[in-house]
Amino acid sequence: MSHRQILFVIFGLMAGMFLSALDQTIVGTSMRTIADDLDGMALQAWVTTAYLIVSCISTPIYGKLSDIFGRRPLFLIAITIFLIGSLLAGLANSMYELAIFRAIQGLGAGGLMALPLTIMGDMLAPRERAKYQGYFLAVFGVSSVIGPLIGGVLSGSDTLLGITGWRWVFLINLPIGIIALAIVLKFLHVPHLSRPVRIDWWGAVTVILAAAPLLLVAEQGRTWGWGSAPSIACYLIGSLSIGAFILAERLMGDDALIPLKLFRSSTFFMATVLGVLVGFGMFGAMMTVPLYLQLVNGATPTESGFLMLPMIAGLMISSIVSGQLIARTGRYKMFPTIGTAFMSAGFLLFTFATADKPVGFMMAGMLLIGLGLGQLMQTLTIASQNSVGPRDIGVATSASTFFRQIGGTLGTAVLFSVLFTRIPDTIRAAFDDPTIASGVTAAATDPAVQADPANTGILTLLANPGGIGGALDGDTSFLNAADPRLAQPLLVGFNDASVTVFWVSLAVVLVAFTLSFFLKAPPLRTTSALQEAADENAAELAAQAALTRDAQRAADTMGALIEPGIDVDEFDREARTESR
C-alpha cells in the first residue's frame, strides 16, 4: 500500500479508536457523580466490570471473525453496537441497568480495541509501524486529556438541554460515533485475502463460560464470601470451562479462536503474560486514582481530570521516544524492563500516601506510571505480532488484547474488592485513633457544627456507629462540605484502604518487572503481513503453475500409453471386462 492509502486507512482507525479511548477516560472521572445520583457507590464495580468482562470476551471473537469475513465489516458492526449501548446507558435509571447497558457497550468496544491494532499489523511491518504511531498517540493523547475534562464538566452540570449532566457522558458518543461511521465507510478499505476456515463455535462458548464466572467472583467474592456456595460454583464452572476451552482449541487446530500453537513461541507467551500483569496494574491505577483524588484530595470531577494530566503526559512522551527508537534500531527488548521499573516506582510512591499529603505527591506517582505505560502498551503488541506468521496476525493481536483485557478486568475487580473490603476496617481504625477521635468529638459538640446542614450526614452516622463501616458504599456527596474534623476519619480510612490497593498493584508490577528479563526479542520484520500473505499466495500459485507445466511436459514426452489406431472405446470395454 502507498503512503497515501495507508493514511486514509489510518483516518478510519483513528475515528473508531477515538470513540473507544474517549469512553474509557470520560467515564472514570464521572463515576462518583453517577454512583451518588443512582445511590450505588459500592455497585460501581458492577458497572466497570460488566463493561470489561464483555469487551475482553468479545475481543478474540472479533479477531477470528475478521480473519474470516474481513476487518471492515466487523469494525462497522463494533461501532454500531457500541453506539446502541451508549444510548441505553444514557437512559439508565439504576446502577444495575447501567451495568447491563455498559455490557452492551463492551460488546462493541471489544472490536474497537482489537481491530485497529490488527489492521495496523496487516498494513505495516513491525519496524515501520513506529513511523505512523504518532497519529494514534495523538488520538489517544487528545482523548485521554479531554475525556476526563469533558466527563468532569458534564457530570458536574445539573442539567444540559434538559437532561441530567452525567447522562451526556454516554450520549456524547452518539454524534462522535456517527462521524466515526462515516469516516470508516469512506476511507477504511483494506484488502482481504479469504481462505477456507471453520468457525470455532465451541471455543467461543467455552471462553465465555471460562472467563465470566471467574471475573464475576473476583468482583462479588467480598459480598458473597470467598468460600460461599456461589463463589465455589464460579470456581468450578470457570475451571472446568478452561479445560473444555483448551480441548476445543486443540481439536480445532489452526482454526481455533486462540490457536494453541501461538504459545509455542516463547516471545508470544512471555509478551502475553506481561500484558496480563501490566493490564492489571494499568486499569487498577486508572480506575482507583480518580476516585482517590475526588474523595481524599477533595477534587471535583473536572479537577480530577486535570490532575490526571501527568499520567497522560508521561505516557505520550515515553511512547513517542520508545517508538522512534524502535523504528531506528529495530530493538525493543529493553522497553518492557524499563517500563515496568517506572510503573513499580510510581506504585511504590503511592504506598506512602497519606490523607494530608498535597495533591502534587499523587501527581508525581502518576507521572512515573505514565512513563512506564508508554513503553509497554505498543511494545508488547509489536512483540506478539512479530512472533507469528502473516496468517495469524488477527488471532495473535486479538489474543494479546484479550489477555491484557483479562488482566485489566481482574485488576479492576480484585482491586475494588480489596478496596471496599478494607474500607470498613480502616474507617473504624481511624475513628479509634486518639488524635482523630478528639477532633471528631470537639466538632460534634460544637453548636455551630451541629447547626450546619452540611454536617447532617456525618452526625447521623456518629449517632449510629454500626453504619460507619458502610458510610462510603452509597452516596458520598455528604463529605464535600462537611466540617474537616468530622470528615477526617472517613478520608483517612479511604486513604489507608487505597494504600492496600497500591501495595497489591506494586506486587503485581514487580512480578512483571522480573519476568521482563526473560522476554526474547527477535529482530523486527521489515515486511507487512499483507505483503507477506500476498507473497505466500503468489508463491503457491507459482508452485501450482509449475506443477501443471511439469505434468504437461511429462505427458508430451511420454506420449500416448496405447498404440495408434486402436479404438479407444473398445480398449476401455476390454479393460473393464478384464478387471471384472
UniProtKB/TrEMBL annotation:
Chief place where the protein resides: membrane
User: Any stretches that span the bilayer, and where are they?
Assistant: 45-62, 74-93, 99-120, 132-154, 166-187, 199-218, 224-247, 268-293, 305-327, 334-353, 359-381, 402-423, 500-519
Coiled-coil regions listed in the entry: none
Q: Which residues form the Major facilitator superfamily (MFS) profile domain?
A: 9-524
Q: How does it sit in the membrane?
A: Multi-pass membrane protein
Q: Which InterPro entries does the entry mention?
A: EmrB-like, MFS, MFS_dom, MFS_trans_sf
Q: Which UniProt keywords apply?
A: Cell membrane, Membrane, Transmembrane, Transmembrane helix, Transport
Q: Under the cellular component aspect of Gene Ontology, which terms does the record hold? A: plasma membrane
Q: Which Pfam families match?
A: MFS_1
**One GO MF term attached to the UniProt entry:** transmembrane transporter activity
Localization, per the record, is:
Cell membrane
Q: Which family does it belong to?
A: Belongs to the major facilitator superfamily. TCR/Tet family.
Q: This protein is called what?
A: DHA2 family efflux MFS transporter permease subunit
Query: What is the originating organism of this protein?
Result: Cryobacterium cheniae
